[in-house]
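Support case: 6-O-phosphono-alpha-D-glucopyranose complex. Customer-provided input:
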Amino acid sequence: MCGIIGYIGKNNTIDVLLNGLYALEYRGYDSSGIAINVDNKISLIRSVGRVSKLEEKIKSLNIKDGVYGIAHTRWATNGETNINNAHPHKVGRVTIVHNGIIENANILKEKLVKEGYHFNSDTDSEVVAALLDYKLRDDNILDSIELLKKELVGSYALGIIIDESDELYALRKDSPLLIGIGDSGNFIASDITAIIKYTSDYILLDSGDIAVLKANSYEIYNGNKKINKEVLKSTSSNIDNDKNGYNHHMLKEIMDEPQVISNLLDRYNNSRNWEEVDLSKYKSIDIVACGSAMYAGLVGQVLLEEYANIKTSVYAASEYRYKKKIYNDKTLVILISQSGETADTIAAMREVKKLGIDTLAIVNNSNSTIAREVDRKILTEAGVEVAVATTKAYILQVCVLSLISYVTSYKKGLLKDGVSYSDFYKLPSLIDLVIKNTDKYREVVSMLSKSESCFFIGRGIDYAICMEGSLKLKEISYIHSEAYQAGELKHGTISLIEKGIPVIAIITDKTLKEKTLSNLREVEARGAESIVITTEELEDNDKHLKIVIKSANRFLDSMLAVCVLQLLAYYVALDRGCDIDKPRNLAKSVTVE
Ligand code: G6P
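Agent response - structure generated as follows:
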């Protein structure tokens, strides 16, 4: 999603802004731009495509460095990807960068056109610049920004420059924004990673806050009153642009999985910490999330129902926030989010909190909105994930849900099959085995990478894994892919099966093995190329391509199978020459509805 960086200080402004933009690249974007104040004139440079193209353009123009500036990576929402729609936008005396969506932009635009304003872009953001410029005709800067707040409907994080002013301004409502406090200057950023290279001291702006930055000082106002806010210290590390010898962040992040899982298991090795993951007091759970986090929730649903005997439902946050909630005082809502900044998940959390329902977040970013506002949280601590397609953060979400199911089942005296916590420790080395055995994938990869469409089938927990495997493949390789409950395929979708279409069956659940195999035979009979991903003990004798993994137990096998699917997606995308870490149209963190 869009990213913001602003800087005022003694360092080289262009360098700081470009470094910030590079650090924000992982969020996903399609154009970028900077505005800097050089000798009291604003220079605006924008470019479609990668930040490296913007950097080339800046160098070729030989622009002098400025005393302050703002910069942006844009992920198109209003208006297609082109130079005019790229940020910053300058109208009259006002230059802005904007994250979020202005819902009443069209109405405002009509009024501003009547006042003589012309617009060069299709964006809602340019309307914000024009409106502030209009307000500045009659008022001073702070009063004008206050008036702007009153007229804008929607969400916004804004970095603002005003001609002839020696200050930077920041303003937010709902979209995240912070200011960084450094020894050699001050910053505006939508995400701490943009400025962590320069400072770890920051202040989170709350909705309605206006920050005024100079090189050596800052002030924050809300409703025309100056306010004091706590300076926080970030524990985030510099975006790890070092791929550790791997060609892509995605592969490096898959390779990190054994270690980050080990770290998580160590945290709960002492059963005194189990209180955090014991949900035995709840009778029903709603899991609410988006994308892969929602698919992690599907795995959790199977485990929580089967082992902890708690009725569990899973919802897309974009639906849940608007639906009628059926709950009582024994209901828990679990929000799952890597970034902790996904707009729909935040909105769902706030709705639920208003109703007084207990909330628990499984979240990776400890500084995020969800981590700050939720009642209780479990941090996944995957570290920063750079590749847009989530891997290590997803697997940790599943691992946390497995732990919750295990501990809750233990506390309720429901544990069967002699599973013990020490079994969880088999997981890192078993994932390591999966990672090291990728030679076996070659045939499957070459079959998939030639296809334009494929299907994943499974039942129960295996269906939940199929959803993630299918998403991973389509998002980075652009192969059309669908995941189906194995028994459901024949109710319509089987009409799409024809000779040569790959169908991948996941079989880790012993009780459903034969059922899924018979569904696979149905598609084989219609010419599908079948592939089975299964455990050693469930391997069948049919003649299809197989990837066989060493099993741990039912709390853990889903994670092993998912790791196989992540690697398959990676190698297929590699084979097809795709931009693996930054797939087209996708954003790492979706901060609009
Ligand atoms: C985006 C990302 C997905 C992610 C989803 C939810 O679509 O590309 O990888 O699963 O958002 O993000 P969250 O940060 O809430 O887990």
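Residues 290-293, 337-339, 342, 345, 388, 390, 586-590 surround 6-O-phosphono-alpha-D-glucopyranose (CB under 6 Å).

Case will auto-close in a few days if no follow-up is received.
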